[in-house]
Amino acid sequence: MKITHYEVLGKLPDLFTFDDGRKVRSVADWEERRRELYKTVVEMQYGQLPPKPEILEITPLMRRFEKGMMSIYKITAGTREKPVSFSIYCHMPGGNGPFPVVIDGDLCYTCMQDAEIYNKFVERGIMLVAFNRCEIVPDIKDAPRKGNLYETYEDLQFGALAAWAWGFSRTLDALIELGLADLSSVTFTGLSRGGKTALLAGALDERATIVNPEGSGCGGSGCYRIHMRALEEDGQEKREEPLDVIVNAFPHWFVPGLKEYSHREAELPFDQHFLKALLAPRVYFDSQALSDVWCGPINTYMTAAAAREVWKLYGKEENVLWYWRSGTHAHLPEDFDRLIEVIERERHGTPLSDVFMKLPFEEPQPIFDRFDSERE
């Protein structure tokens, strides 16, 4: 990948300075700082997250516990007065569980209906669970806020990404109640807008032990303060997706206030390293494609490197992982192969292959502060 244009709009806000000017010097300090970050990086972008539901009802629609078969459950959650329902599709390793589980909200994408993909997990004793996030709130720019989660929590202001992230947590709630989820191995994953959702859901739900956004870009794993262009594998020059484009094309994903920072990214009091840092010290694994410049390869790397300073504080730097493959914007079988590698490293201590942690471009100069327990 050849970078043809690289512009830094400003230094990343410091993860290790409290709003009152104090410095983070220990893990205990960071846990306090983590709580402070929520209002900034989450509410300013995605809104006030819908709460844990008053009700959680699980209706079996199809139960098949044989290996390679699928069980389907309808989840009804929210408030008693205005519940929301959606279905989860569980590809079973065989037996009653509990199983290591991978949750993906991208059932609206054809890849999550591909037997080659779900059989990869089943053959390794991992349950793959898919749901259609669009059943919770629609992915339509001008859709009315009626008959879905917006109406359930009409007193809260939140965008579609927050609603879909709520769906990840309710899916996990149901799997726990059903006795199907092994809480020592819970993965959230998704592609593109689904990757943005998986990252947000994983940052907020500490039960996720591995969080794997694929090609999530702006508003996900990217960096608002970097503008870039690069040549893709076919030689075509492409740019990354900037804030002004995403908030105009997909305003329903976010809250309206984010749009105020279009062309003013350097004034944002956060960037996406704040969101990623909420995951520490759990496993953050970001996967990308070489012909997917729109998702901002340097942007993604820079906020991952910045957030990794928090993992260093925990002595868990090895839990920040990235990987680039050849190809375009998609969630391919080989991407799931890499995710399975990460899961099996965590479960069995199996070493990762050598495709991880290789940058397809020259490492840029850092635009973030490193952790220093002695700094003033």
Task: Tell me briefly what this model is.
By secondary structure, the protein is α/β, with parallel strands linked by helices.
Polypeptide structure, described:
- With 376 residues, this protein is α/β, with parallel strands linked by helices.
- The chain contains 9 helices and 12 strands.
- The strands form 2 sheets. It has a 9-stranded mixed β-sheet with strand order 2-3-4-6-5-7-8-11-12, with helices on both faces.
- Helix 2 (115-122) links the parallel strand 5 (99-104) and strand 6.
- The radius of gyration is 20 Å and the shape is globular.
- The mean pLDDT is 95.
> In one word, what is the shape?
globular
Cα distance, first to last residue? 39 Å
Oligomer: single chain
Rounded mean pLDDT score:
95
In total, the number of strands is 12
* Estimated radius of gyration: 20 Å
Task: Find the structural class using helix and strand composition.
Answer: alpha/beta
Helix content: 25-40%
In the sheet with the most strands, the strands line up as 2-3-4-6-5-7-8-11-12
Low-confidence runs of at least 5 consecutive residues: none
* Beta-strand residue percentage: 15-25%
DSSP helical segment count = 9
Q: What summary fits the major beta sheet? A: 9 strands, mixed
Series of secondary-structure elements, N-terminal to C-terminal: EHEEEEHEHHEHEEEHHEHEH
